[in-house]
Design goal:
Elements: H1 5-17, H2 29-44, E1 59-69, E2 73-84, E3 95-104, E4 109-118, E5 124-139, H3 144-147, E6 154-170, E7 175-189, E8 203-216, E9 227-239, E10 246-260, E11 263-274, E12 304-317, E13 320-332, E14 344-355, E15 358-366, E16 372-378
Antiparallel strand pairs: 1-2, 2-3, 3-4, 4-5, 5-6, 6-7, 7-8, 8-9, 9-10, 10-11, 11-12, 12-13, 13-14, 14-15, 15-16
Length: 382
C-alpha cells in the first residue's frame, strides 16, 4: 500500500518547520535515517503482501527549511528523501537515498548524498555516504587549556570531503555486524592567527578500514521507553601523506527504562579515543546537539573524548512533553594526561511534541562560563 497524499504532505510540513539540528554541523546519514524510519513505520503497520509494480516505484519526500545555530548563523537547506523496494516482500525494509544542500549567512555551505540498500531477504545492507562542507568557524586552539581562555578565540575555514560505505549483516535479536571503508579529506585555511597552528598539518587525507558491531533492543527507534543501543566501531586509518597509520575506537552505549506513567530515563555513555599518531583534524570536539549541549561545537577538542548524560523525559498531556538532562564530558590528550578538573558539565531542559511518529524538540543547553545554546530539530538527542 502506498503512502497517502495527506501523510506525505504532513511529513513534508514537519520537515519544513523543524529541519535537523545536525545541519548546524556536518550533514550526515543520521537525520535522513530518522526520516526513513518514519516512512518505514507506515509500511510496518500493514501485514505481509505482494506489492504491485506501481507500488514498487520510487517515492520522494521533499526536505527544505530555514533555521539558526550559533555555529552557522541563519541557514537554508533543501533536498529530498526517496524510498524504494528491491523486492515485493513488504517485510524487507525499504531502501532509501537522499540528498541535501545548505547555505548559511556566515558563508558556510554543505552537501551530502546518503542512503541504504537492502538485499533480498533483508539480511544484508549497504549504507553509503558522500559529504562535502566548507565552513567558517571560531577556533580557540587545541586542548582544554587553550579553549578555556576566551582571549584565544580566532577564526578559520575548514573544507572537508568524506566518503564511506558500510557492508552489514542484520542478524536476529537486534544484532548488526560488518565492516566499512572510507576516505577523508580535510583542509584548514584562513586562520586569523596562523601562529596558533605552527608545525601542525593543515591538510590531511587518509583511507580508513573498520569494523562495526551494533546491538539494538529498543522498543522504538524514535522515542524509546526501554531497551539498549550499543554501537562499537574500531578502525585503522592510513594517511596518504605525512604520518603513520593511526587507530581509533568509537563506542556508544545508550539504555532506557520507564520510571512511572509517562516518565522515561535515558542514559548515554560515549567514548572516542585514538592513538598518538592521529592528526588534529580527526580529533573529537565537544558540543553540538547530541552530547555536551550548550557548548560551541569545536571549542573544546583533543585526541580523546569521554562523556555521559542522563535525560529524564516526561509526557505531560497528549502529544506534549518535556525533558531535563545533566551530564559531563572531558577532552584529553591521553589517559595519562586525563585531568578530572577539566571536566565540562552540561545541563538543560527542553520541550517535546510527538506527532506522526516524529518527536519535535526545542532545547536550551548550558555549560561553563555562561556558555549556552538553543537547539531545535527532529527526534530526541539520543
Amino acid at each position: 500500500m502506498c503512502r497517502t497524499a495527506a501523510y506525505s504532505a504532513v511529513l513534508a510540513l514537519l520537515l519544513i518547520l523543524f529541519p535537523a539540528s545536525a545541519y548546524g554541523q556536518d550533514p550526515d546519514s543520521a537525520y535522513l535515517a530518522r526520516v526513513q524510519d518514519t516512512v518505514d513505520r507506515y509500511f510496518r503497520q500493514h501485514p505481509r503482501q505482494r506489492l504491485s509494480q506501481e507500488d514498487r516505484k520510487f517515492h520522494v519526500v521533499p526536505l527544505y527549511g530555514i533555521m539558526y545555530t550559533q555555529e552557522t548563523g541563519l541557514l537554508a537547506m533543501g533536498g529530498f528523501m526517496g524510498s524504494y523496494r528491491m523486492t515485493a516482500d513488504t517485510l524487507v525494509p525499504m531502501s532509501s537515498v537522499g540528498a541535501v544542500a545548505m547555505f548559511s549567512t556566515n558563508l558556510s555551505a554543505a552537501a551530502a548524498v546518503t542512503g541504504d540498500w537492502y538485499g533480498a531477504g533483508g539480511n544484508f545492507r549497504i549504507e553509503y555516504l558522500l559529504r562535502f562542507n566548507s565552513s567558517r568557524r571560531y577556533f580557540w586552539g587545541l586542548g582544554y587549556s587553550m579553549a578555556d581562555d576566551d582571549m584565544n578565540r580566532g577564526t578559520f575555514t575548514n573544507r572537508r570531503v568524506r566518503a564511506r560505505a558500510d557492508f552489514l549483516y542484520c542478524g536476529t535479536g537486534g544484532i548488526l555486524a560488518g565492516g566499512f571503508a572510507g576516505y577523508d579529506y580535510y583542509r584548514a585555511v584562513e586562520f586569523s592567527d596562523p601562529d596558533v597552528m605552527a608545525g601542525l598539518p593543515m591538510l590531511t587525507h587518509y583511507l580508513t578500514l573498520g569494523g562495526r558491531f551494533e546491538l539494538d533492543t529498543r522498543d522504538d527507534k524514535i522515542s524509546p521507553e526501554r531497551g539498549i543501543f550499543l554501537n562499537a566501531e574500531p578502525s585503522v586509518s592510513f594517511p596518504l601523506a605525512g604520518t603513520r597509520p593511526f587507530f581509533r575506537t568509537e563506542l556508544t552505549f545508550d539504555f532506557y527504562f520507564p520510571l512511572w506513567e509517562g516518565g522515561v530515563a535515558a542514559v548515554d555513555l560515549y567514548g572516542n579515543v585514538s592513538t598518538s599518531q592521529s592528526p588534529w583534524t580527526v580529533w573529537p570536539d565537544a558540543g553540538g546537539d547530541v552530547r555536551l549541549r550548550g557548548y560551541y561545537q569545536g571549542r573544546f577538542r583533543d585526541r580523546n573524548l569521554l562523556s555521559a548524560q542522563l535525560e529524564l523525559r516526561q509526557r505531560i498531556y497528549g502529544s506534549h512533553g518535556a525533558a531535563v538532562w545533566g551530564g559531563a564530558g572531558n577532552v584529553f590528550p591521553s589517559f595519562n594526561g586525563f585531568d578530572i578538573k577539566n571536566t565540562l558539565p552540561t545541563y538543560g531542559a527542553g520541550y517535546r511534541f510527538s506527532f506522526l511518529g516524529l518527536v519535535l524538540r526545542l532545547d536550551a543547553g548550558f555549560g561553563l562560563h555562561g556558555q549556552w545554546a538553543l537547539i531545535a530539530g527532529v527526534s530526541h538527542s539520543f
